[in-house]
Amino acid sequence: MLKFARPIHPGEFLREEYLIPLAMSAGALAKKLNLPRTRIERIVKEEVGLTPDTALRLARFFNTTPEFWMNFQKAYELETEARKLAAELEKIVPLDAAA
Known about the structure:
The chain has 6 helices and no strands. The protein is mostly helical.
């Protein structure tokens, strides 16, 4: 059976690596990003994912890149879907093994 890492939601990363160490609330960050408070709150509660718009704003504020943030979202989605599809993926014979 395929084994996949525990998916890390980008909101968990934002909360644990940025907001908590900076003692910053989701609302305070939202204000600095010119976003609705609920958008950042829902991200850090892991209810919704990051959009390119949010990634661009986070990158600007935290002096990172939008790709840095979008890669968390992409990895989370791939790992989450891989877990759902694990049984189906096991049934697929890789091309080089099929020959």
